[in-house]
Structures are given as C-alpha cells and as structure tokens.
Automatic annotation (TrEMBL):
CBU-0592-like domain residues: 5-79
Pfam short name (any one): CBU_0592
InterPro entries: CBU_0592-like
NCBIfam families: CBU_0592_membra
Residue spans crossing the bilayer: 6-24, 31-49, 55-74
Annotated protein name in UniProt: CBU-0592-like domain-containing protein
Organism expressing this protein natively: Asanoa iriomotensis
Annotated keywords: Membrane, Transmembrane, Transmembrane helix
Coiled-coil boundaries: none
Length: 91
C-alpha cells in the first residue's frame, strides 16, 4: 500500500465518520465537528482527484468541500443562531 492510498483512506474515513455519527444521532449535520470532518475528508479527496485528473470525482469532492466550508463559515457569521435574550421583566 502506498502513502497516497493511506491518505485517500483517511479522507474517506473522515467523511464516513461524520456520516455515521449523523445517522446515529451523535452529531448534528450542521454542527462544527460534522462540517470540519467533511471539509477535511472531502478536501483530501478533492486534492487527490485533481492530481489524478479524475474530473467527476473532483466535481463531487470539490463541491462537498465548498458547500461544507460555506456552511461552516455561516455558523460563525450567522446572528440568528444565537438564542434570543429573555424578555425584559416588566413590573
């Protein structure tokens, strides 16, 4: 087994771990850990796909990486995710 094969397996395992955890309700599909696992795994696979000129695989993994990265960025910039403050108590 070559080093590239090991890296490819690691990338796949990151995505699969996120997917399995979401299916088992251990991770929310919008959580930071889920998105980071997807960015890492899909990013690794996208780089490998590009280096091997595997255009369909690059389209899939590149899109997966970009969508996950946009979702992660939105988690940090979205104001609506924060709970609303309790209403002011009126006497």
């Amino acid at each position: 087994m070559h080093l590239l094969d090991i890296v490819e397996i690691v990338g796949s395992l990151l995505i699969l771990a996120a997917f399995a955890a979401a299916q088992l309700r251990k991770l929310d599909a919008h959580s930071v850990p889920y998105l980071v696992l997807n960015i890492g795994g899909a990013g690794i696979l996208a780089v490998i796909a590009a280096s091997q000129q595997s255009w369909g695989f690059l389209l899939l993994e590149g899109t997966w990486t970009i969508v996950s990265a946009i979702s992660l960025a939105a988690r940090f910039t979205r104001r609506g995710d924060r709970p609303a403050p309790p209403p002011a108590h009126q006497a």
